[in-house]
Give the backbone structure.
Amino acid sequence: MLGYVLGRLLAAIPIFILVAIFIFSLVHLTPGDPAVLLAGDNANPQQVEKIRERLHLDEPLIVQFGIWAGNALQFDLGESIYSNKPVTQLIAQRIEPTFVLAAVTLFLTVAIAVPLGVIAAWRANGWIDRGIMAFAVLGFSVPVFVIAYLLVYFFAVSLRWFPVQGYKPLSNGLLTTLHSVTLPSIALALVFAALIARVTRAAMLEALSENFTRTARAKGLGTFRILVIHALKSAGIPVITVIGIGFATLVGGVVVTESVFNIPGIGRLTVDAITRRDYPVVQGVILFFSALLILINLLIDLSYALFDPRVKG
Amino acid sequence: MTGYLVLENVGKTYTLKPAKIGGGVRHVHAVDGVNLEVARGETLGLVGESGCGKSTLAKLIMHLEVPTGGRVVIDGVDHSRLRGPALKQARRNFQMIFQDPQASLNPRMKARAIIGEILGNYGKASSQRVDELAALVGLSDFHLDRYPHQLSGGQCQRIGIARAIALNPGLIIADEPVSALDVSIQAQILNLIGRLRQQLNLTMVFISHDLSVVSHVADRVAVMYLGRIVEIGRTESLFRNPRHPYTRMLLEAVPQPTPAKRHARAAVAGELPSPIDPPSGCHFRTRCAFAGDECSSNVPKLRPADSPHMVACHKAETIASSLNMNVA
């Protein structure tokens, strides 16, 4: 098992290096001189030259990459052009709302999608199944922001159960925070849940047609035990994989949702940085999300061993 | 004779969706009015080609499928109408040994958990009993702490057998229990099943397409063709003196290992017709050399040939005398 974990960890390193190279190239792939770009429209040649020197843009590309990667390893991602604050500090300030939003969304998604998928497979082709799948198709056909505005209209504007927008930090208490992220989480979870429910149903249908499921019935086991202990555990791998892949989509959804609900998270930071052409921040955020996704995929790989004893190092 | 297992006119019809838009609903008569009795402690062999309804019949007895007609009575209880907790309690009394031993075990559970689960399900969880069962089927601690994929087919089947006998059932349905195993392992498993049958006084339905295996274990043999039982009798009687032309065809198809014993035989002719639209009257008439008008108009009933040997064929006597003439 330890060997399996180490192997997976080592395999993540080259992926991360590739991602780093790509992010580094971002500034250099943009048309025009990065120094001019960074200096802004009203800069004089001296200022451009200063920036060029400060950012080592006069060095060969490989050296630049070395300096940049070395700094990144020490959690120095440069400074924001707009606010002159360190990028790591900006990310750290914005991480809490995004993390809470993603965690609540993930929880809601699994809590909604997995039971729905299991029930749909159990009652395959019946009206319950059709109903759930119709909901699923609707879920990922409607864009997040449409669902978000509908939720705001009904539950915030009409019923006044939840705030229209904004985020209350955890320092105000967990319940207050959860109350403020309920609507954005539901909006995101509905889209995500639709995907997971479909995959759960498909994986469950396969597991339920396995011979060992028939054995479980012959043993006289109850429906719940057959569905959850025997079938769902065997359907777990595709489901957990899609949850992981879906997380990448979720990141995109977070950006939109944070804008709709005016939540000061990393998504907002990203959107603002892009509109201001604040390249160090854009680079930093992308690097952060990449590292996060690599970490999540690593965790998923490791979780396979939990679902299937045949997976090991 | 009141049997331990009694099947009364048991049928299973599957409804298929129309093959094309506007087409009619079609029915598959997988099992068609089967009557059977198996006495306590007796082993009935059930033979027939693939697709003849053997496995469906096994599932009906096991209540893995619900019959669309008739009654399945085990030890005096008609369990085909049972549901919920009553069905769960009834299940203790009938268990199944499956065809593909590896696939029938959950790959995510160790052997110990697989055997233990059925005990726990009936509130009888006991590691001592698991060890006892393992010893009974010739497995040790070493095997119990392994996952199915770490064990051989034969070892997996021993786990399947241990699981099946865990609650001391009266009836065991063995659906092709050795067909997935190597020949050398087949003999071991057959001997194990035979030994347990005597030790535990099991009533058994043993399904196989392999006539030599059936002749080895069964007291009586029933031959199925397209959902119906066409012949049933004591094993020796049926093998020595088959009355139904289909049984003859099956017996003649058995490979003979000794070249000297080989002689010209009628090969199995034709294919099994579709159970969606079976031939009228006698289902076998399309492959039968002796078929006449009567065979297409009337369904032959099982009737005594020489009691207790029963056959469902209008022409049984004609066939018997014509063959005797050939011999003479």
